[in-house]
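Possible regression after last week's pipeline update?

I re-ran a chain I had predicted before the update to compare outputs. Posting the input and the new output here so someone can diff against the archived version. Not blocking, just want to make sure nothing changed silently.
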Amino acid sequence: QVQLVESGGGLVQAGGSLRLSCAASGRTNSRDAMGWFRQAAGKERGFVAGITWSGGSTGYADSVKGRFTIFRDNAKNTVYLQMNSLKPEDTALYSCAAGRTIGNWDYWGKGTLVTVSS
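New output (post-update):
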């Protein structure tokens, strides 16, 4: 089992920045990939960014490339999502996920809400 707890969400004005954190615990060495997803009201959950613990390989959704950065602290078992130049359309519940590889997610956190005002 892997437990994931997100933090760092909040209300920010358009153009501002937020940093989300996802603390992993439990059998973290059983899952190499970590990812961030988001779900806006009335929409399906979508992939935002992913990273591997082992090699640090990253991937991003086109909508966030150049604005968001995912990075990890292996010693703290924590993955971060630095979000810059935020837009109102970034407003969503952001959830953390873990999986054996990027794309194969099987553990989820409860999420943290990000609201971007115009």
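Follow-up from reviewer: compared with the archived run. Residues 4 and 24 are 5 Å apart (CA to CA). Marking as no regression found.
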